[in-house]
Design a protein that fits this description.
Distance between the termini: 52 Å
Domain Radical SAM core: 24-269
Number of helices: 13
Structural class: alpha/beta
Strand order of the largest sheet: 9-8-5-4-3-1-10-11
CATH class of the largest domain: Alpha Beta
CATH superfamily of the largest domain: Aldolase class I
Protein name: FeMo cofactor biosynthesis protein NifB
CATH architecture of the largest domain: Alpha-Beta Barrel
Keywords: 4Fe-4S, Iron, Iron-sulfur, Lyase, Metal-binding, Nitrogen fixation, S-adenosyl-L-methionine
Strand content: 15-25%
Shape: globular
CATH topology of the largest domain: TIM Barrel
InterPro entries: Aldolase_TIM, Di-Nase_FeMo-co_biosynth, DiNase_FeMo-co_biosyn_sf, Elp3/MiaA/NifB-like_rSAM, MoaA_NifB_PqqE_Fe-S-bd_CS, Nase_CF_NifB, rSAM, rSAM_sf
GO molecular function, one term: 4 iron, 4 sulfur cluster binding
Length: 423
């Protein structure tokens, strides 16, 4: 009899290519990009996650909602009998998007009880969800721990957002480290396998990785994966090159005296599909097998001139409302939005103004308005292009990832204060 909800899965680590080198060429994995938001800012990461060509963590060519993600897994299981692992690794943090993450995990678990489930997270919001992860038989969790001393961490993280408050500097680093420790200890108490990822940043934490290994081993971590920095344009660490390969080899040998080391990491995308090292994307599958949903009756759109979806919700003084007809969507009317400056009440008022609309299409939106409108039953979709073309796509296939576009307009502020928009 298993002694914990996850013991059966833990014993099956040999089917997980990220945890067993011999499994990498025998079993496939898929990452489901259902978690776009993040609750920390790292100096090596930007928020422009939409990319077809780059191969690195935090990048995807599209997003899926939980229902789409589960149907994609259904298709993959039919096509690839050797698929053994379903993971959620972004493009943001799974637990900055707990509803989407847990809904997806529940759906996959109920439909495919044989699959291994895993998540990769920064750990900040993880402790509150350990119990449910164990109940869902999530067997493997990866936590990115780049520092175990706040004076090192503050050089990596300009801010973290926790319990609706933004913290910066050493306070932010200390909080993150404390939460990571709490999460890993709790995960091990539930019997889950824990892998620690550590980004090795020359001149920042490269001489600190051994200490990370020692400390996380004391917390109970099972394996560590030192990952060389991937310089990303537009970030604070863009000018820092990757660590020397010889240094990385020596570092892995040194750290292996403390914890088992994963040495076959390929820095997977958030939408990775296939064997480790393959360039497949789960979004390629959705292009061929679109997940159809019922077209909504009414849709609100933010637009500057009535032709394009090209206006951020926070800047919109009015929305265009369209109604579904027999042959497609037809324009119904314009509706004024509440004046700026009302904080969250502004978005509650808007939710009443467009309460008969199931969907809002906009070129950009902050976390607060998206959450408040979502709580009112209005799905906020970041999109772009000609209104009529997008509406035609929705009429034919419903609101799928094909109509979504990345929002980049808040880039500098998103990487700065962390206070969010619309308040």
């Amino acid at each position: 009899m298993p002694t914990s909800p996850c013991e059966e899965c833990v014993m099956d680590t040999a089917r997980h290519p990220c945890f067993d080198d011999e499994a990498r060429s025998r079993y496939r994995r898929v990452h489901l990009p259902v978690a776009p938001r993040c609750n920390i800012q790292c100096h090596y990461c930007n928020r422009k996650f939409d990319c077809v060509n780059e191969s690195r963590p935090g990048v995807t060519s599209g997003l899926l909602d939980p229902d789409e993600a589960c149907e994609v897994v259904d298709l993959l299981k039919e096509r690839f009998p050797d698929l053994t692992v379903v993971g959620i690794a972004g493009p943001g943090d799974p637990f900055a998007n707990p509803d989407e993450t847990l809904s997806t995990l529940r759906g996959v678990r109920s439909r495919h009880p044989d699959l291994l489930l895993c998540v990769a997270t920064n750990g900040l919001a993880l402790p509150e969800y350990v119990e449910e992860l164990a109940d869902l038989r999530v067997s493997h969790v990866t936590v990115t721990v780049n520092a175990v001393h706040p004076e090192v961490g503050e050089r990596i993280y300009p801010w973290v957002r926790y319990e609706r408050r933004v913290r910066g500097g050493r306070e932010a680093a200390r909080l993150l480290i404390d939460r990571q420790q709490e999460a890993i200890v709790s995960l091990k108490a539930k019997g889950l396998v824990v892998k620690v990822n550590t980004i090795v940043i020359p001149g920042v934490n490269d001489t600190h990785v051994r200490e990370v290994a020692k400390e996380t081993a004391a917390w109970g971590a099972d394996i560590i994966n030192p990952i060389p920095l991937y310089p990303v344009e537009g970030t604070r660490f863009a000018h820092i090159g990757e660590p020397d390969p010889r240094f990385m080899s020596e570092l892995r040998r040194d750290v292996a005296r403390i914890l088992p080391v994963m040495s076959h990491c390929v820095r997977c995308r958030a939408d990775a599909l296939g064997f480790l090292g393959e360039e497949g994307s789960v979004m390629d599958l959705t292009k061929d097998h679109r997940v159809e949903t019922r077209p909504p009756e009414r849709i609100a759109v933010t637009t500057m001139e009535g032709m394009l979806i090209n206006q951020h919700l926070g800047e919109a003084e009015e929305v265009y409302v369209y109604e579904r007809g027999d042959q497609g969507y037809v324009f119904l009317e314009r509706r004024e939005t509440p004046e700026r400056g009302g904080g969250e009440e502004r978005w509650r008022l808007l939710s009443r103004i467009i309460g008969d609309c199931e969907v809002l299409l906009t070129s950009g939106v902050g976390g607060n308005p998206s959450r408040i409108l979502g709580e009112a039953g209005i799905s906020v979709v970041v999109s772009g292009g000609l209104i009529q073309e997008v509406l035609d796509e929705v009429f034919r296939h419903g609101v799928t990832s094909r109509v979504e576009r990345p929002f980049w307009g808040c880039g500098p502020s998103c990487a700065g204060s962390g206070t969010g928009c619309g308040v």
